[in-house]
Amino acid sequence: MDLLDSIGGLSVDQFMRRHWQRAPLLARGAFPGFVAPIEPARLFELAGRDDVESRTVSASDGRWRLEHGPHERLPPRRRPGWTLLVQGVDLHDDAIAALMGRFRFVPDARVDDLMVSFATDGGGVGPHVDQYDVFLLQARGTRRWRIAPPGDASLVPDAPLKLLANFAPTEEWLLEPGDMLYLPPGWGHDGTAVGECMTFSIGFRAPSRQEFLTAFLAAAADEPGGRDPRFTDRGRAPTATPGRLPEDLAERLRGWALDWRPSAAEVDRFVGRWLTEPKAQVWFDAPAPLAPARFERAATRDGLRLDRRTRMAWRGRSVFVNGEAFEVPAAARRWLGRLADRRLLAAVECPRAFAVPGVAAMLGDWHDAGWLRIGAAPAATPDP
Ligand SMILES: [Mn+2]
Fold this sequence. Notes:
Helix content is 26%, strand content 25%. It folds into 2 domains: 6-204, Cupin (Jelly Rolls, Sandwich); 292-374, 3-Layer(aba) Sandwich (Malonyl-Coenzyme A Acyl Carrier Protein, domain 2). It has helices at 12-18, 40-47, 94-101, 209-222, 247-259, 264-275, 292-302, 330-342, 350-354, 359-368, and strands spanning 6-7, 10-11, 25-27, 54-60, 63-68, 82-86, 111-119, 133-148, 171-175, 180-183, 188-204, 304-306, 312-315, 318-321, 324-327, 344-345, 372-374. The two termini are 15 Å apart.
């Protein structure tokens, strides 16, 4: 899994300092001789599945139509002006997941997904902004992109899509296969297919405070840690003002809110779980479970790799996998951190990892859950 070594004539380091979250960059020939690793026919098949998120968009006489999948039937390929969007293709296709791996100079926790957009001539989803950083990689055919700096965000009223009402593009390019356009969040953009085309959107998410707190508070409410005191008013005197909120009730609730303080450890644990939570449609196919000795033998022979759907991260002594948290000793964390960073453990590394107490059992459980696969691990990359 080789990282991109340059983007539009800049080193990745220069790109990150000058462009990431700051300014768009058109990278001509970012992937020289690029051949899309997925055929339209395979994309259409994914769009028919109910565990895949897809939409079609078309416009006629200025009226936009949006339909959510699964799509049993798509418009004919010869009909101009329609688009199929398929989210999370990296979750369903190893070649696409490998392409995402070339962008791992950005932390995995920032990754959203790879969306594939197929469009017939003239197709597009209209001018809009996203809250995401995105690399728009032209995969097949030609697309015209027009972009505009952040500004007037007013939307077209009553449209089924969020369309910018006053889109005023400042630049325009035709992208050919292998060309790539990076856009920071908030930049207006409008892509139109010139002939049939396919575009990959490699998207990076960034949580907002509201998104985080909504999720955190819901999780905190779900896990009261066993203790859940309830208001009581034994011995209350009769009231002559039944419409009045009782002071004791209001004060008790205020106290619960003001006194409630999660510990730093609880917050950290939630952060790791939340940032590695798989998307809603993801489920793992559990293989036939292996007895510990057989698992260790197989891993030592063929190596281990994370399933393409697995989200894994580490921080300090904590390891997070697919929304679960594990506190491990330093020696174990070293190996599990390596697995998170490279998404594989080579066969030769497995005996050393298994020598650390607890590691083999943990990895065996992850294998049985379908999070971790045996075999087909590429050769180990040298230590940095
Ligand atoms: Mn977009």
